[in-house]
């Protein structure tokens, strides 16, 4: 199984990027083809053999990763699966690529694998990095309904069938949009605790646009993918959860502004999932109302 890797960078972490590339190069088995996408930023000097794309403007996370996919041909067709890795992460184990190959080969309906993210100093995995509701034990692998954006592997047949990430999201929830389309097409998603990406512990709210993007894209996600009956239920639950968390007034204003923007701006193509997919999500422990 041929593997490629897409690494998105803003050009501000050259040392971390080099360390990540070294960890990819050390993987057991056939060498992984790598493309580094400079998302509106010039790239530093990189090892020989690494493909590069410098974008004149920041296209956002999904837009930049989609460019990386196409660097491997239409829908990444030059390889069988693509690893998507954060530029400040690294693969601490040399067998991760072989585990990916083995998992995809053994299960022909497996479309996406979500890696376990662990802090390099403490070994801790943040609860938000376990893509399921029952997240108390990050060392337990399972079927899941979404995946982590900068620590995953996607079979390129999935991308050819359901399309890439939603460019217009720019940041936040783009993985869930792809995950729902993937599950609706009959593929499965696994969280694998034994496939580890080291990444420093961070808070998602470090991004200035976090609250607005999270709210706007949550509405877009529902409008694009859910049956009409579930759209108000899903968004009503998330509105109540947001209020229950008692955000600061500036954060709440940004969130409410994004929520309104999600209703008043185009969400992109609407392809509601089948009710059979709703039932599958429910059986996997995360019905699409939360």
What features would you describe in this structure?
With 290 residues, the chain is an alpha/beta fold. It contains 9 helices and 8 strands. Strand 1, helix 1 and strand 2 form a beta-alpha-beta unit. Helix 5 runs parallel beside helix 6 (210-225). The longest helix is centred in the C-terminal third of the chain and has 16 residues, at 210-225. The protein is globular.
Low-confidence regions: none
Counting helices, strands and paired strands, the structural category is: alpha/beta
How helix-rich are the residues, as a percent range?
25-40%
Largest beta sheet: what is the strand line-up? 3-2-1-4-7-5-8-6
Which H/E pattern describes the elements?
EHEEHEHEEEHHEHHHH
Oligomer: single chain
Distance between the termini: 36 Å
Layout: helices, strands, pairs:
Elements: E1 3-9, H1 14-25, E2 33-38, E3 51-54, H2 60-70, E4 81-86, H3 96-106, E5 110-118, E6 142-143, E7 151-155, H4 156-162, H5 174-184, E8 188-198, H6 210-225, H7 231-244, H8 249-264, H9 275-283
Parallel strand pairs: 1-2, 1-4, 2-3, 5-8
Antiparallel strand pairs: 4-7, 5-7, 6-8
Helix pairs in contact: 5-6, 6-8
């Amino acid at each position: 199984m041929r593997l490629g890797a897409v690494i998105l960078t803003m050009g501000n972490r050259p040392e971390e990027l080099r360390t990540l590339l070294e960890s990819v190069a050390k993987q057991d088995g056939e060498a992984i083809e790598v493309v580094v996408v400079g998302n509106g930023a010039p790239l530093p000097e990189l090892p020989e053999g690494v493909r590069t794309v410098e974008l004149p403007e920041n296209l956002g996370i999904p837009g930049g990763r989609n460019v990386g996919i196409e660097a491997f041909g239409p829908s990444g067709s030059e390889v069988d699966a693509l690893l998507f890795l954060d530029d400040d992460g690294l693969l601490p184990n040399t067998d991760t690529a072989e585990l990916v190959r083995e998992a995809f080969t053994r299960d022909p309906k497996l479309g996406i694998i979500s890696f376990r993210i662990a802090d390099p100093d403490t070994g801790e995995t943040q609860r938000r990095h376990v893509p399921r509701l029952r997240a108390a034990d990050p060392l337990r692998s399972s079927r899941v309904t979404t995946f982590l954006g900068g620590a995953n592997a996607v079979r390129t047949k999935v991308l050819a069938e359901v399309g890439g990430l939603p460019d217009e999201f720019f940041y936040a929830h783009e993985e869930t949009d792809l995950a729902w389309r993937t599950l609706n097409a009959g593929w499965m998603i696994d969280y694998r605790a034994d496939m580890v990406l080291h990444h420093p512990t961070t808070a998602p709210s470090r991004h200035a646009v976090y609250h607005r993007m999270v709210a706007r894209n949550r509405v877009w996600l529902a409008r694009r993918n859910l049956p009409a009956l579930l759209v108000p239920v899903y968004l009503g639950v998330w509105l109540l959860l947001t209020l229950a968390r008692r955000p600061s007034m500036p954060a709440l204003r940004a969130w409410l502004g994004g929520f309104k923007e999600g209703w008043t701006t185009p969400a992109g193509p609407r392809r509601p999932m089948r009710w059979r997919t709703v039932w599958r999500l429910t059986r996997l422990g995360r019905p699409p109302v939360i």
